[in-house]
Specification:
heterodimer, A: mainly beta, OB fold (Dihydrolipoamide Acetyltransferase, E2P), 2 domains, five-stranded mixed β-barrel, four-stranded mixed beta sheet, about 0% helix, elongated, B: alpha+beta, Ribosomal Protein S5, domain 2, five-stranded mixed beta sheet, 6 helices, rRNA processing (chain B)
Chain lengths: ~210, ~260
């Protein structure tokens, strides 16, 4: 039953696993109803012991396979998005990753002018911050309504353009918070540049 | 090519009834038709399942979650995901080929009235079983193709679609199991009837029940025709028993599909 054996127990949705309480807690791939933990996906049962303390409950998870994640954008998620086109009031984006997982289908989103920067929101011009085909890191701040899609925000230091192409068609290299330089011609272009902490570390979705 | 409004294959007149179980065997017992289910039958789909209940055969495929493409009937801001069900009867699915007046005027590819109704029933039956609150602003497509219709299509489609959803790894509260029965005039019941078995019976109504077995919640209860409350109560209890009988078979099919998927290719 524990994660040590190679032949793990396979669960199907609706399978009752444990009593929800002191010893076990419902984790990913499970749901808790009427005081019991049930599996909610078809996959392998994992009982993850809590890292700190003996009396804390271990987490029950049902996992499928590593490359088979059904992530969808959610409120507060850090997402990777591609800028599709820009207007005077917002930039239309396409979300391709949520945290570390790649989406099987892209989701449309809007980066509104007032959500691009934390300071001087009313002076922001969209075309000076993002350009079509840029790859941005952003946070989901709203689910939108019937007409519009997800709302994104880059009003944080770590968020903004991480990859861009210059007018000449070459890679842009960040040189400051507001500018990027073409790797071939040396032309400076304005962007809302993301401060990526360290590319060798995995970004953590909070 | 102009086709006649209705036609019958020659086999309809020459069919012998010797191979079929006699009608008396099936009354008031839990004698169900042979049941077969397999998940993960289509390589190209994210999740799929194939089901046979007697001669009723259908295949379901699932895709998603993805961006919403259909307009939702509820006016709220998509706080929950939605299911988009499409049902298609194969042209060879019925023994009797009929073209109704409404169908004659529709464009090729448009769903018929029956397909639309069935799709709505499947959507209503599966929505409570899927954790839609975990996928806001997303849509799950369920495509259901009926290869052969010999009765009990709704129950077969519900089981098949829920297995396909589980096979696709969609978060679900529980599987959905379903079964149908026919009420004959003298309050006798025929469990899991096929159309051939009902052909010469005085049928007064039919009941289809779908439930989530672990949570013991009924998600669909469809009744047609007239029957007394007492008969209906009995019918629902009997149908529930039949649903529970299928549970280990569906579970086994899903366990097999998980094992197959996890095996390195």
């Amino acid at each position: 039953m524990t994660a040590t054996t190679s032949e793990k127990k396979i669960c199907v949705p609706g399978e009752r696993l444990f009593a929800d309480g002191e010893e076990h807690r419902s984790g990913k791939g499970t749901h808790s109803t009427h005081g019991f933990i049930y599996a909610s996906v078809a996959g392998f049962l994992h009982v993850v012991p809590s890292p700190i303390g003996e009396e804390k409950a271990s987490t029950v998870e049902v996992r499928r396979f590593e490359d088979d994640d059904h992530a969808v954008p959610f409120l507060g998620a850090i997402v990777t998005a591609k800028v599709l086109n820009i207007g005077s009031r917002f930039a239309k984006c396409s979300i391709v990753c949520v945290g570390n997982s790649i989406l099987s289908h892209p989701f449309n989103a809007q980066l509104r002018r007032e959500d691009i920067q934390a300071t001087e929101r009313d002076k922001v011009e969209v075309q000076k911050c993002v350009r079509p085909a840029d790859v941005i890191l952003a946070r989901v701040i709203g689910l939108g309504d019937n007409q519009t899609s997800f709302y994104l925000s880059t009003a944080e230091e770590e968020l903004g353009v991480v990859f861009g192409t210059s007018d000449a068609g070459f890679k842009l290299i960040p040189i400051s918070w507001t500018h990027m330089q073409c790797s071939l011609t040396g032309d400076k272009e304005q962007r809302k540049v993301a401060k990526v902490p360290n590319l060798n570390l995995k970004t953590t979705s909070s | 090519m102009r086709l006649p409004a209705s036609s019958l294959p020659l086999s309809h007149f020459t069919q012998s009834s010797s191979g079929l179980p006699s009608h008396s065997d099936r009354q008031n017992t839990a004698n169900m038709r042979p049941f077969f289910i397999r998940a993960n039958v289509l390589e190209s789909a994210k999740g799929s399942a194939y089901i046979e209940m007697g001669n009723t055969k259908l295949v379901c495929s699932v895709d998603g979650p993805k961006e919403i493409t259909v307009s939702s009937d509820s006016g709220d801001a998509y706080s929950e995901g939605i299911l988009n069900v499409r049902v298609k009867f194969a042209v060879f699915s019925h023994q009797e080929r009929t073209v109704s007046d409404a169908d004659a005027h529709r464009r090729i590819g448009d769903p018929t009235e029956l397909e639309t109704k069935l799709a709505a029933n499947i959507q209503d039956g599966l929505s409570p079983a899927v954790c839609l609150d975990r996928i806001p602003r997303a849509q799950i497509d369920i495509n259901c193709t009926i290869l052969e219709d010999q009765g009990g299509v709704l129950s077969a489609a519900l089981i098949c679609a829920s297995s396909a959803l589980a096979d696709a790894g969609i978060d679900m509260y529980d599987l959905v199991l379903s079964s149908s029965l026919a009420v004959v005039d003298n309050d006798q019941m025929i469990v899991d009837p096929s159309t051939t078995c009902l052909a010469d019976k005085p049928i007064s109504g039919s009941v289809t029940v779908a439930l989530m077995p672990s949570l013991n919640q009924v998600v669909t209860c469809e009744q047609s025709g007239a029957c007394s409350p007492e008969t209906l109560r009995k019918a629902i209890r009997l149908a529930t028993e039949c649903c529970v009988k299928l549970h280990p078979l569906v579970q086994k099919a899903l366990v097999t599909s998980v094992r197959l998927r996890s095996r390195p290719k």
